[in-house]
Structure formats: structure tokens, C-alpha cells
């Protein structure tokens, strides 16, 4: 998959594409249905499939308290690659972009630059200055220029609409099982293993550390986890997602302790791993001192082992 961060990076020789526009947070079953149908259309037209999105997301730009994200950007990109998308056009969303008139967005970006031949968006899709552009405008301008515009159908699970909002709510409650049902895949966070404070090593619980953005949805706390990327099989462990208040941490991290894995030569540093949040154990809390935290870590590890091996 090619990641494109600027319209200037799109070659003038491009013959066209099949496209969709949206946040695609989570790449859930509804998103997958849309993308799989568009892949078939792209193959029939012999054109690449392009997913168009924005950074920051428009809601993050306009709202002082936007909803949390299901996934950080790097995990969205990982999911898009897995789904077989050809191009991910990630445009910078700022005041200048927000001020683009909707007609100019369609003509300059979709028609003249991307040469979109087939476009799928939700029938409630709004765009352009003050969100005055809508599905009807896309359809009207598309009909005049040879761009087919279709709306995306609703996808349901247990008679309820699948949405990023529902998944976000499940994750915020620590309900990984129900979130996975709507995602259509196991919830994982990925990244390169970083050096941490090495406090865990002093008490017999060394950890693999991933730095995470603050605005992700999963409940802060302790999880039983499965880890891919360090061996020829999935490993198991216990992880804490949060800022580590007992040791006055300031940044959001996922700190994972692996069972039955020794890294004496510290070869894990720099490796890219995926950590599946398998089950939520307890919420993050501040302990009176480091020894109290150590006692709780022992209990958390025992609980995680029982969950993962039963």
C-alpha cells in the first residue's frame, strides 16, 4: 500500500481510481464490507483503490473534546494494508483545508487531481466550508463529469448498526469481547519496543514498552495479552495501559510483561510487535508506594496467566 500525504505527490499521469472518504476509525465490519466491495469494483475497472482520510480528523480539529480514537494512526494504516487497499491518501486537515468550498473540493481534488471514477460515501457525508457539501452535490457533479457516486449500506450486528461509536464505548468499558465482535478482528495495538524506566526489571517483571497517544479509547488499566512479533508463535503476558500514576508517569504507555520469555541480550528493543488486549483485568490506580504496586503486579500476573491458559 502506498501512503500519500499530499495532493502534490499524486502523479499527473494517474488514469483514475476508485475511492472512498471517511475517518475509518477501527476498520470495523462495516468498513470492511465497503472496502471489499470497492476492491471488486477497482479490479473490474482496472484501477487502484484509494482510501481518503484526514489528520487530524475533522472532529479533532473542530472540537475541544473530540471522541477518543479506536486506533492510533499507525494501527489504522496496518489494518488498511491488511485489507488490500492500494493507496491511503492522508490529507492534512487545517483551517485552510476546512475553508475549501465544497464545489472546489469535488472539482479540484476528486475530479481533477485524483480523477475518481467511482466514489462511495455515507449518505450523511458532509464536507467543504461549514460542511455545506453533501451527498446530493457529489451525485450532481459526478453525473456531469463521469464520476459514479454511491452510498454505503448500513452493516448490522444483532440487529444494531455497527459503528465506531459503539466500539469506542465497549473499549472504554474494558469490554474487549464485544468490541471484537463489531471490529471483526482482535483488538491489537502495535509499535516498536522502546526503552522504559527499567523499574519493572528490578522487581522481576521486565516489560516491553510501547508509547501510545493519549487519545485512544481502551480503558486504562491491566490486561491479559497476547503478543506477536518476537517469536514464531504468539506469546502471552500481562500489560498495563496508562500513565503509571504510582511512579508519577506522564505519558501514555503500554507496558507488557511476557511469561516464559527471557531477553537477556535485549534483542527486543526496536522490534515491531503487536499486542492483543485479550481481557481487561482491573482499572489503573495509584498505589501508596512501589512495594504495594509490586504486590498487586504479582496478583495481576497470576490472574492473567489463569485467563490465558485456562
In short:
This protein has 310 residues and is of the alpha/beta class. Helices cover 32% and strands 25% of the residues.
Keywords:
310 residues, alpha/beta, Rossmann fold, Elongation Factor Tu (Ef-tu), domain 3, 2 domains, 6-stranded parallel beta sheet, 6-stranded antiparallel beta sheet, 10 helices, 14 strands, elongated
Helix content: 25-40%
Rough outline: elongated
- Strand arrangement in the largest pleated sheet: 1-4-3-2-5-6
| CATH superfamily label of the largest domain | HUPs
> Mind summarizing the main beta sheet?
6 strands, parallel
Describe the structure.
The protein is an alpha/beta fold and 310 residues long. The protein has two domains: 153 residues, HUPs (Rossmann fold); 123 residues, Elongation Factor Tu (Ef-tu), domain 3 (Beta Barrel). Helix content is 32%, strand content 25%. The strands form three sheets. It has a six-stranded parallel sheet with strand order 1-4-3-2-5-6. The chain has a six-stranded antiparallel sheet with strand order 9-14-11-12-13-10. The longest helix is centred in the C-terminal third of the chain and has 20 residues. It is elongated. The mean pLDDT is 92.
Task: Set out the fold topology.
Layout (H helix, E strand, L loop, with lengths): L1 E3 L12 E5 L7 H17 L3 E7 L2 H5 L10 H10 L4 E6 L2 H4 L3 H12 L2 E6 L13 H11 L2 E4 L4 E2 L2 E2 L2 H9 L3 H8 L4 E5 L6 H4 L5 E4 L9 E8 L6 E8 L10 E6 L13 E12 L6 H20 L1
Parallel strand pairs: 1-4, 2-3, 2-5, 3-4, 5-6
Antiparallel strand pairs: 7-8, 9-14, 10-13, 11-12, 11-14, 12-13
Amino acid at each position: 500500500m502506498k501512503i500519500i500525504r499530499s495532493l502534490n505527490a499524486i502523479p499527473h499521469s494517474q488514469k483514475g481510481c476508485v475511492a472512498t472518504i471517511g475517518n475509518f476509525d477501527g476498520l470495523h465490519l462495516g468498513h470492511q464490507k465497503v472496502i471489499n466491495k470497492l476492491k471488486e469494483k477497482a479490479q473490474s475497472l482496472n484501477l487502484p483503490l484509494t482510501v481518503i482520510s484526514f489528520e487530524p480528523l475533522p472532529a479533532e480539529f473542530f472540537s475541544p473534546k473530540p471522541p477518543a480514537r479506536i486506533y492510533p494512526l499507525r494501527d489504522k494504516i496496518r489494518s488498511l494494508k491488511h485489507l488490500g487497499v492500494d493507496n491511503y491518501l492522508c490529507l492534512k486537515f487545517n483551517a485552510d483545508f476546512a475553508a475549501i468550498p465544497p464545489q472546489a473540493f469535488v472539482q479540484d481534488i476528486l475530479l481533477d487531481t485524483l480523477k475518481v471514477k467511482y466514489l462511495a460515501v455515507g449518505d450523511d457525508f458532509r464536507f467543504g466550508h461549514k460542511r455545506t457539501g453533501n451527498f446530493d452535490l457529489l451525485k450532481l457533479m459526478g453525473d456531469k463529469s463521469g464520476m459514479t457516486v454511491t452510498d454505503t449500506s448500513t452493516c448490522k450486528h444483532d440487529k444494531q448498526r455497527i459503528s465506531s461509536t459503539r466500539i469506542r464505548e465497549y473499549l472504554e468499558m474494558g469490554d474487549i469481547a464485544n468490541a471484537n465482535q463489531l471490529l471483526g478482528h482482535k483488538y491489537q495495538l502495535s509499535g516498536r519496543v522502546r526503552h522504559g524506566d527499567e523499574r519493572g526489571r528490578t522487581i522481576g517483571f521486565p516489560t516491553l514498552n510501547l508509547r501510545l497517544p493519549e487519545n485512544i479509547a481502551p480503558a486504562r488499566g491491566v490486561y491479559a495479552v497476547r503478543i506477536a512479533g518476537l517469536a514464531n508463535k504468539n506469546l502471552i503476558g500481562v500489560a498495563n495501559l496508562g500513565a503509571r500514576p504510582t511512579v508519577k508517569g506522564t505519558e501514555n504507555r503500554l507496558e507488557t510483561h511476557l511469561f516464559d520469555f527471557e531477553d537477556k541480550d535485549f534483542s527486543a528493543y526496536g522490534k515491531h510487535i503487536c499486542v492483543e488486549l485479550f481481557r481487561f483485568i482491573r482499572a489503573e490506580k495509584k498505589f501508596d508506594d512501589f512495594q504495594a504496586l509490586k504486590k498487586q503486579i504479582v496478583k495481576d500476573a497470576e490472574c492473567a496467566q489463569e485467563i490465558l491458559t485456562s
